[in-house]
Amino acid sequence: MHLYGTQSVNNLGHLTIGGVDTVDLTHMYGTPLLVYDIALFKERATAFKETFAKAGIKAQVAYASKAFSSIAIYEVAKEMGLSLDVVSGGELYTAAAADFPREKIHFHGNNKSYTELQFAFDEKIGCIVVDNFLEIEMLKEISESRKEKMNVLLRVTPGVEASTHDYITTGQEDSKFGFDLKNGQADDAVLKLYNHPYITVLGMHCHIGSQIFETDAFRFAAEALMEKMIEWREKFKFICPVLNLGGGFGIRYTEEDKPLHPSAYVEEMEDVVLSMTRKHNYPMPEIWIEPGRSLVGDAGTTLYTTGSSKEVPGVRTYVAVDGGMSDNIRPALYEAKYTAATANRMLDPHADIVTIAGKCCESGDKLIEDAYIAEPAEGDIIAVFCTGAYTYSMASNYNRLPKPAIVFCENGQHQLVVRRETYEDIIRLDIPLQRTEQEISS
């Protein structure tokens, strides 16, 4: 089995994360439990930043926090000198609660509301990534009525189709996101904004998809945006000081995945931009990127307790755990693959092939098919690896299941950063029917 970051096995045969025994964590916090290896998050953040620094390129590395949002992870991102990518008023509110530096917050989204845009002005954030023409008109109205300035990037679709799942491909022309780079929409957008008295266009943004392993797609996207920036200089006498090339860098979920080191993606982008700026005598833009999954994905591990099991002779053996699609929808949503281990018996042979099933009332609630674990027994702790991205942020209360607790581990220490939901939390927003005395008596 492949262990990640600071994961190890102690003399009790237990999985440890950040020097902390995961079995002890389950005794203290219960299961399901999402555990983050914070040292691995920091290592990845440092790798992205250092690659730009070594090349002498001015850059911002923004944590794409839709992967996992909480006050605590925003505080770690702030500590590491990262910027922050938010996509809703809720994420911006969380960032404000974490006292994240407002000038380093970038607000994304394809359908920001007027209220959300006002909130961004209230907080005086660093940049809004504009996605459509309605948003342009709302930004004009808000900035002019307030007489307040705002920096923006224009999100464009460069026509690059990355090799990834259809649900997480976003850079192709047929996308709900951004202005098309080839049909004139991007040109129209920049003309509407770049001479505005309160709105400063910093440049362009693209995001071509998620869980991408090859670098060609990133090179093509960088070339497409640089060509358009050079064209805008000629047509409009406008030079973009910022080029945001998004994220989407892949991680290893299973042994079949072959991710590159974070520096490899950055170096390819750097190469394209440096080459084209030199060739066309174009001022070197500040490069922004937005890693999310590649910072938190394999830093997260979910711990479950096994319960019932069922053998279907000649077909499969089901082993049920106390979570499932309510805390990790990805396998059911787009057939995401994971690996697992028996955290309380790591030294036992992991030779039994089982299907790890969740407890939700859905036949499709299967976390892993063909998982190799130690011979299962009731009460075992199952660790599902690489669950740090798009699990808690996409979790639900389906079947009225409470969301799990979250713990950060580092240097032998652990800290609860999100408490487990209670049944009281589940009904907190419910309002009973208001009945008259006559209705009650009848």
From TrEMBL:
GO molecular function, one term: diaminopimelate decarboxylase activity
Listed EC numbers: 4.1.1.20
Domain Orn/DAP/Arg decarboxylase 2 N-terminal: 41-296
Keyword check for Lyase: yes
Catalytic activity: meso-2,6-diaminopimelate + H(+) = L-lysine + CO2
Protein family membership: Belongs to the Orn/Lys/Arg decarboxylase class-II family. LysA subfamily.
Assembly description: Homodimer.
Protein name per UniProt: Diaminopimelate decarboxylase
Organism, as annotated: Sporosarcina koreensis
Lineage: Bacteria, Bacillati, Bacillota, Bacilli, Bacillales
